[in-house]
Write a structure and sequence with these properties.
The complex is a heterodimer of chains A (about 250) and B (about 100).
Chain A: H1 8-27, H2 30-40, H3 44-54, H4 57-68, H5 73-84, H6 86-98, H7 102-109, H8 114-123, H9 141-172, H10 187-201, H11 206-222, H12 230-234, H13 247-250
Helix pairs in contact in A: 1-8, 1-9, 2-3, 2-4, 2-9, 3-9, 4-5, 6-8, 8-9, 8-10
Chain B: H1 3-23, H2 27-30, H3 33-56, E1 57-58, E2 61-62, H4 66-80, H5 85-101
Antiparallel strand pairs in B: 1-2
Classes of the chains: A mainly alpha (about 250), B mainly alpha (about 100).
């Protein structure tokens, strides 16, 4: 934020750099998906179709996992959809800044995922002073421009990298290097942490920090009890107090 | 068409429609102050939950992967030192890979 608020173009360039980095770093993990899918018994085309059209890593891994385990395909699909449900919540936040309508929305929707949301959100002033833009707050057009730049750079880079690496992983299965050997399994969490970091470190962000810690705690506590996908979704309950009337409104 | 294909197509269609649904909520609904606050705060909760789950869960089991944990710790140090974003990612991958190589 401190670097981006000075010159608008600099902010846009920084958002693009972040998007490029996330897209390439996370996109390479498509190798792991391609390999996992083929090992699970999907064919190369099925693996590629999932990356092209589902384009949401966790759901894709869930379906491959269900097929590998010889599990029920209906339950496997349901599990994949539960993991994909958080993207609906991301859409609520991105709809305004992206400002897309009509046919364009159909294309842009494909890109509403964890990584694009994380990069876009890092550009928006959410939680500034612990008080995210409430009633009557003017939308900050410069912030929205940075958010759009970040979203589309992440989307396009990640889409290209994810699909190419899915193909490589699916075709190469055995001889491809395991992304875990390259330490790429830690890069996803590190991305999200780095993107949340400035928000959480900002002065007066106590409320945001509480929400972040509560979200992580809810997800970990629910993990042994509920099927994959639900714990992360349930973590959004940490933001539910926002739906209660605020002190000013109650007055 | 095989059952697997149906599962693939249903997953693709369902995941896409879930994404589209969030973007398609009418503006006048999103402009309600409370829903707007929720929409701004929910991604913070979701992304931190995702960090926790990707770090410490495998399926329904909780476990600590030594190399990955060390990698994230290195990311925290890099962030505290105000390292640029891409350097944070590079340090994370390098530390995780080296720790794994060392047998952690």
């Amino acid at each position: 934020m401190e670097a981006t608020s000075k010159r608008p173009d600099q902010g846009v360039a920084a958002a693009r750099r972040a998007g490029l980095g996330v897209g390439l770093a996370v996109g390479c993990s498509g190798v792991a998906f391609g390999a996992a899918a083929v090992t699970a018994g999907l064919d190369v085309l099925q693996a590629c179709v999932l990356s092209l059209f589902a384009f949401t890593g966790a759901s894709q891994f869930a379906l491959a996992g269900a097929i590998a385990g010889g599990g029920d395909l209906v339950a496997g699909t349901a599990g994949a959809l539960l993991l994909g449900a958080r993207n609906s919540l991301y859409g609520l936040r991105l709809a305004g800044p992206l400002g897309v309508r009509g046919l364009r929305r159909l294309g842009v929707a494909l890109g509403v995922i964890d990584e694009t949301t994380a990069v876009a959100m890092a550009q928006l002033g959410d939680g500034r002073d612990g008080r995210p833009g409430g009633a009557g707050a003017e939308p900050d057009e410069a912030a929205n421009r940075r958010a759009r730049a970040g979203f589309f750079t992440t989307f396009l880079t990640l889409y290209a990298a994810w699909n190419l690496s899915t193909l490589a992983g699916a075709v190469g299965t055995a001889q491809m290097a395991d992304p875990a050997v390259l330490g790429l399994d830690a890069v996803g969490p590190a991305c999200f942490l780095a993107l949340l970091w400035p928000r959480l470190r900002a002065g007066g962000a106590t409320r945001l920090r509480v929400i972040a810690v509560a979200g992580a705690a809810i997800a970990l506590l629910a993990t042994p009890l509920l099927p994959p996908g639900i714990p992360v979704l349930l973590a959004s309950a940490a933001a539910l107090p926002a739906l209660l009337p605020s002190r000013e409104e109650a007055r | 068409m095989s059952a697997t294909w149906w599962a693939v197509i249903a997953t693709c269609a369902g995941c896409y429609l879930l994404k589209l649904a969030g973007l398609s909520v009418p503006r006048r609904v999103l402009d309600r102050p409370r829903l707007r606050r929720f929409a701004e705060l929910a991604p913070v909760a979701l992304l931190s939950a995702l960090i926790a789950v990707q770090m410490f869960a495998s399926g329904q089991e909780l476990h600590v992967d030594g190399a990955r944990t060390l990698g994230l710790a290195a990311a925290v140090v890099a962030l505290l030192l105000r390292a640029p974003f891409l350097l944070v990612l590079a340090v994370t991958a390098a530390v995780t890979a080296l720790a794994r190589l060392a047998g952690l």
